[in-house]
Amino acid sequence: MRLIAAAVLATALLIPSTAHATSSPAQATSSTAQAALTTAPPRKQAPSVNCAVVKCLALTFDDGPAKTTGPLLDILAKHRAKASFYLIGRSVARSPGLARRIAREGHEIGNHTYSHPRLTELPGEDIAHQLDRTQRLIAKATGRAPATMRPPYGATDDRVLSVAESLGLAQVMWTGTTEDWRLREERAIRRAVLSMARRNGVILMHDPVPATVEAMPSILAALKKRGYHLVTVSALLRGRPLSPGETYPPRK
Known about the structure:
By secondary structure, the chain is of the alpha/beta class. The protein has helices spanning about 25-40, 70-80, 90-95, 95-105, 125-140, 160-165, 180-185, 185-195, 210-225, 235; strands at about 55-65, 85, 110, 150, 170, 175, 200-205, 230, 245-250. It has one domain: Alpha-Beta Barrel (TIM Barrel). Strand 4 (about 150), helix 6 and strand 5 (about 170) form a beta-alpha-beta unit. It comes from Sinosporangium siamense. Keywords: Hydrolase, Metal-binding, Signal.
């Protein structure tokens, strides 16, 4: 019997919610200022991992927490690997215990909006609402507001970055994406990860995709055999915090 039930659907998390509270620009500004005060730098990676010396790779997971997140955390712990999780606010509201566990086990948490909309299609006050609401939910669950965000679908522009900066958030993108939501097959996902793995790379996956979690033991074993240390995005930066409004990896 497979570890993860195929009935768990990642796509359920990708349907944007239209029923969120609206706010005036003045209210959004006030909310933004409060959230920026709560933003804290990510917890540092264990000092034994020095990415200036060893070969590091950051595995990142979007769209959780989900039913599959717990088994993924078990696998990461077994392989002594760290990762970065970009969480959806409404999912944190449903599963705050999973968000707490992610933080407690030394992984990094970022903001992935409240309901997964394309931020570039929203007015500024709604972008602020999506990010601010999620900041508060994650802070309530874990005791710390994220210092980074990742825009759903990678949809970003200068306006999105400006709002993120006003909230004290940097933007984390990726060097390679598995498109696991489309592949949905263990071997294909494994091949995708291994083909794009490179030193200081940032690989995008989705923890609500069951096949991704099923593939992780073999992915982690193969990456470690190649000499990779699997770390958080912050560890790749070797202790340098990202500035609000900064994008990493840098946009070309």
